[in-house]
Amino acid sequence: MMSYDIVAVGAISRDLNVVMGNEEVRYGGGSYCAAFAAYAARCTTAVVTKLARDDLASLAPFQEVGIPVFSTMSSQTTSIKNVYTTPDLDRRTCFMIAMADPFQKEDFPQDLNAKIYQVAALIAGEVPLDVLKFLAQKGKIGIDAQGFIRTAVGHELVSKDWQDKYEAFPMIDFLKTDAAEAEILTGCTDRSQSLQALAAMGAKEIVLTHSSEVMAYAEGQIYRAPFKPRNLSGRTGRGDTCFAAYLSQRLCRAPEESLKFAAALTSLKMEVPGPFRGSLEDVHALLATY
Q: What is the pTM of this model?
């Protein structure tokens, strides 16, 4: 039996990031950032992913630190072009270059178990509803709304309301969304109202990120914690990092304490491109300022 605190589920992505006209190519994706954040928080962590054989070398960073990876071959590796159009990097236009094959139940080893499955999909259709139901029977699940509302229309990725949200939300233990996605799901421009509307739809516990702060809704209460990055050069991957950091603490801590930890770790991640590779001591030093 292979048991972990957090198993990150999602395709690896070969990203082309264009930040105010400057381009860079790097491997990433939700599962990439989530796994490293959970690992930094000293959770036992594994990854379930899909990618093309030619991109297997992209898994080396996991192997270097000892994060187990259960990968299934795909006809192609997901590849996304992200064009950030505002100085706070909170708005972006995304284009799909390629998409990995959808996950199936058979992609998960039978003896793999997790306290929380963090579903960090990138594009709608990557993780079908039947796979969510399968994981919900195995343990708690946390999902990022991005991977269910970001839809490929030709090569452009546009956000559309998630038609299965009323069926999905009640079986989801933790929901992550950003301010723009929450507005699409609820029609509310006010972030606090969005959290309450998502809860009314059946979401049990919600994490919502914004350029200035991260919020959480738990047991009828709303909590807030500011982000404190000194720069935004590592903005890509903010949401998946923040969600994983929050989940890592919710295994044993209350929502408010977990949220502050997530804000501190994510603030440090946003200063450096790529997944979070800082130390827990660095996180606690910043956390002391909250």
A: 0.94
